[in-house]
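Reminder to self: keep the SMILES exactly as supplied, no canonicalising. Ligand is zinc ion.
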Amino acid sequence: MSPKSNPNASTTLPTQSKQSEFSLVEVDTGSSPAIDDIPHTKASGLIKSTEVWYADGDIILRGDSTLFRVSRRLLTKNSRIFEDLFDIPQPDVGCLSEDSDDVMEGCLVIQVFDPPDHLEGFLKGLYDASWEINVNTNHNLRLAVGVLEVSSKYEAYPLRERVISWLASVYPPTISAYRKRWETWSKNPSERYFDPRNITLVANAARVSQALALLPAALLHYLEKFGSDFSAIIDAHDAGLALGSDRYEADLPLLTRDNLSSILKARSRIAFFARRDIYGFAFYRFRKAMCPRGEEEECLRGKREWVDEVEKGSPDGWFSPLVGQELWEMEMCSVCEKAAEENVELKLQMLWERLPGMLDLLRWDELERTSRLEAPPDSGPE
Ligand SMILES: [Zn+2]
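Structure tokens returned for the bound complex:
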């Protein structure tokens, strides 16, 4: 829905777009002062934001019951949607009663339908080009997704690019960064464990708001986390679909249809690549063993036992090529081990390059271009 088609566009903006239904963030900004402390709040219980309230602001945005006083020029300069909105003649503030909710302190109040904390992050980001959310806790990650949604919805592109780069610290465009991403995750005990619902939160928001460079890593993470039980994925999505809701409280957090389609296709492609290319030296017996004389049998047995172990946990063939497949658990001879290490690193890199294609997405460079995300220089596998 475009705000241009909204008959009430002079005082309202479109309702929160669909992707925000995935939001897990509470709407309370937590930083607003008690209502009694505020002189200008009215009977309707409106609360001024303590962080985004500029005395020289000439417009007030209202999200739920929180008010943000900001500069119309700043919004116009940074957001194509607000630029269009303010092109439409606004009601004359002088004709509106200060007793109504439509005007306060001489400023027109515009109702928007974004959660106040997301809106607050959006406005802070517009006001301060150096403002940043460190995406190293569940709370901050959810907030950043909210700001991604709001900045995409209002077409505030420079801020959107910044938010995508913050989120890319968790879902990066390189495999080396993907493997190292938890090194900077929270040291705070209450936030130490990554909430797996955030995988779908990011993946679904990235899909809907076209921040596509985040998708391969997020969807691979989904498969790593939930991919072992194919029928559970299907059942959860079927049940969600039958109830007509993407908020269905399933054991598995639900993906959007496009994301679901991507992972269902990629799952067998990844498993096949992992078996044939990455760990082919173990799954398939090679005629020419490289093992030192006398160690062939033991080396072969080590590989076979490792394969048996993998197969036990993967009744239908899926296993994550990245998680829990530690090579040192495979008791090979030193020659095979060295060759295996090199092969696994090389082929994992190849898997990463092909991952977008396996997910039916564009190539990495195209994804980065559509998301306007510059890939950081790859330091290569560790
Ligand atoms: Zn060997």
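Points to follow up:
The domain at 1-129 is CATH 3.30.710 (Potassium Channel Kv1.1; Chain A).
The first strand starts at residue 47 and ends at 53.
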